[in-house]
Amino acid sequence: GIPLPELAFEPGRAVVGRAGITLYRVGTVKPVRVSDDLERLYVSVDGGMSDNARPALYGADYSARIASRRSDAAAALARVVGRHCESGDIVVDAEYLPGDIEPGDLLAVAATGAYCFSLASNYNYVPRPPVVAVAGGEARLIVRGETVDDLLSRDVGIVRPGTSEESA
Q1: Does residue 47 contact residue 80 with C-beta atoms inside 8 Å?
Q2: CA pair distance 107, 96, nearest whole angstrom
Q3: Is 166 strand, coil or helix?
Q4: For 16-44, how does the pLDDT look when each residue is reduced to its tens digit (9 = 90+)?
Q5: How big is the CA angle at 21 (ends 9 and 14), to the nearest 5 degrees?
Q6: Quick one: CA torsion of 92, 124, 146, 79, rounded to 10 degrees?
Q7: pLDDT at residue 137 above 90?
Q8: Concatenated DSSP letters of 48-100
Q9: Cα distance between residue 58 and residue 111, in whole Å
Q10: Strand, helix or coil for residue 17
Q11: Which residues are catalytic?
Q12: From CA 53, how far away is CA 69, in angstroms rounded?
């Protein structure tokens, strides 16, 4: 015989990828003509590359659905973009969403259970979102969302606006 090979793999995404869903709130919806016969909706959301860097880093492909209401509107080609000032801040590159998507809608992006939390950053000084666990019909906060005060509390030697005190 041939010796049996030793198999090693990193199971993170395979194990927990489908366990996570990220909810975003729609900020604006803008139709943009991309050719004579094609229009695309640009749907901006309140998150982006600071809470899910995978599309920008690896070209990860996600899908999205409206989670806050039912819609029977005709589907429209859409690109879901984040809140950051980067051309690569694209959450979902191409998806057909109901054409009546509007500001305030909740958008669910599935399969975000692996690496989104661990890769999250404070890019553009944006606080990281909370993490909520759902099991048996019950939801429980397991990581609280950051606040601007959380971000400022790490700065030292900076005078906070409206005070004469320096950060500790």
Answers
A1: no
A2: 13
A3: strand
A4: 888 899 999 999 999 999 999 999 999 99
A5: 15
A6: -10
A7: yes
A8: -TTT--HHHHH-----EEE-SS---SPEEEEEEE-SSS-TT-EEEEEEEEETT
A9: 15
A10: helix
A11: 85
A12: 27
Q: Residue 25's pLDDT is what?
A: 99
- DSSP structure string for 107-157: EEEES--SSHHHH---GGGPPPPPEEEEETTEEEEEEPPP-HHHHHHT--S
More confident residue, 156 or 49: 49
Give me the residue label for tokens 């979902």: 92
Over the stretch 148-159, which tens digit does the pLDDT of each residue have?
999 999 888 767
Q: How far apart are CA 105 and CA 57, in angstroms?
A: 27
Domains of the chain: 13-121 (2.40.37.10)
pLDDT at 10: 75
| In the chain, % of residues over pLDDT 90 | 81
Quick check: 167 pLDDT over 80?
Answer: no
Give the chain's radius of gyration (CA, Å): 20
